[in-house]
Design a protein that fits this description.
The structure is a homodimer. By secondary structure, chain A is mainly alpha-helical. The first copy, chain A, has two domains: about 60 residues, Arc Repressor Mutant, subunit A; about 130 residues, Up-down Bundle (Four Helix Bundle (Hemerythrin (Met), subunit A)), CATH 1.20.120.530. In chain A, about 60% of the residues lie in helices and about 5% in strands. Chain A is built from ten helices and three strands; from the N terminus they run H-E-H-H-E-E-H-H-H-H-H-H-H. A three-stranded antiparallel beta sheet of chain A has the order 1-3-2. In chain A, helix 2 packs across helix 3 and helix 4 packs antiparallel against helix 9. The interface between A and B is medium-sized, with 28 and 28 residues. Chain A binds a DNA duplex through helix 3.
DNA sequence: TATGTAAATCTTGCATACCAGACAGGAGAG
DNA sequence: CTCTCCTGTCTGGTATGCAAGATTTACATA
């Protein structure tokens, strides 16, 4: 919540800021989104914050626990699988439906792959999370279909939340290679193959998740205190207020 | 707006009622949705109506004209094409991704086709519009993927609005046959073929639209007065207040 | 020391009040 | 008779206020 009050907050900047924050992996799943705080930060009344939250809720990006607060979604394992399945359906359908790869499209894809490579070299994990999701938005943009782009953007946001929750180890290079093969198939004009590759890629990514074990609800606290799984320690630095120590309920 | 105040209006019944009204073709595109009227009808304050409208707006089912009012969406020709393209992508991807047709699924599809046949025999055009859209939701339900179901439900709602706007003549039997061939392909286990058929079917339906000529903005008034294209008459029954006579702006 | 209870403090939920823009209809001028 | 402008009335836009619920903390007690 620190650095998203940069813009001058026109109409629905609240909504966009939060989505942007999630897409860039700055906002973690389960983050509390206080109406009052957001209202203060964006210089509007709670009413408009509320409206933004409602809209985000219909996009399954945020959820409300009655009288408790708004929280960034924490997709369950079941939801995670559903989202990945949906993405496989849509992305493969998208690629298969393509009839040509324009020069501009090729250009953008290559530029993106270059960025990925760069981030891998730099080892910037947060940036990578963001880029790995962005790739699929780039694919959607190839179609030029605004409806599909919107849908995939939301699914990507949810995917990022899922990654942050369940991704034990981050096979960045593996994902990157997957993207490369998809682009390669597109360049040869073999869209059916690109579709198949995208399915395989998404399955691969999904398999990289640890959907069996529910995440430790206290893990963020533990990491804040910088201790691996147990034992106690004193200094807390990353916890600004006592409020963050709250146990979160998944219900 | 007459018969959607049946339910006892729990939390988001406003939203559901409107969507249901659209899915059943009772609510026409461009219908004005007054905050005050809805608030009265549902026995709540404008605040909650407003929230429902916001949610519907993010689903592209409703749109607001600043300081003028909320209206059921009237998709442009461009949007219409985009929506159909998106549906082709998603539905074909969905069918292609299937690995089996369960008995329960087969059962439901057949039941639906029977309903279609029945409605055709009865010549119930409104019911047909509803059923033609529902078929595709049934297909989505085969996947059991809640995310896809939601997406396709919204797209179907938009499709119905499009149909009401642009469908010059209603080739119900043609659509029905299309549905039958898709089901037949599914029954043989040839999901790739079903996918291709769904694309063809949707293209066929889209071609049945008249997307070139913008709909006459006065046509709803004319039909309300039950006169084909011109000349005047006196009694108006379906127009409760002068407000409804307003010319609507597409912007 | 551990535990149960109660009060305090936060949170959202909802309604209301007020503001400003847009349209319609009528009055007046040409 | 026609055109223009003005005003009344409706619309949504926004903020605020109050109420209800949940959680936490403090405190008393075993």
């Amino acid at each position: 919540m620190q650095d998203l009050h940069t813009a001058q907050t026109a109409q629905d900047d609240i909504e966009r800021s939060i989505v942007a924050g999630i897409l860039s992996a700055r906002i973690k799943p389960g983050t509390r989104l206080s109406e009052n705080q957001l209202a203060t930060v964006f210089g509007v009344s709670r009413t408009r914050v509320r409206e933004a939250m409602m809209r985000l809720e219909t996009r399954a990006i945020v959820h409300v626990s009655p009288r408790r607060g708004w929280f960034v979604a924490e997709p369950s394992a079941g939801e995670a699988m559903t989202v990945y399945a949906a993405r496989r359906v849509i992305e493969s359908g998208l690629l298969r439906s393509m009839s040509e790869l324009t020069d501009a499209g090729r250009e953008k894809l290559h530029a993106h792959l270059a960025e990925e490579k760069e981030a891998i070299a730099a080892g910037d994990k947060q940036r990578l999370t963001c880029l790995m999701g962005d790739f699929h938005i780039r694919l959607a943009e190839l179609s030029g279909n605004g409806v599909l782009i919107d849908i995939l953007r939301d699914l990507t946001a949810r995917t990022i939340l899922i990654s942050l929750l369940y991704q034990s180890d981050f096979h960045a290079m593996q994902s990157h290679l997957g993207h490369c093969t998809i682009v390669a198939a597109l360049e040869t004009g073999d869209f059916a193959r690109a579709a198949e590759l995208s399915i395989a890629h998404l399955e691969e990514v999904e398999e990289g998740l640890d959907l069996t074990s529910r995440r430790d609800p206290l893990s963020d606290l533990r990491t804040s205190l910088s201790l691996p799984p147990a034992a106690a320690q004193s200094t807390e630095a990353a916890v600004p207020s006592r409020r963050n120590n709250r146990k979160r309920r998944t219900a």
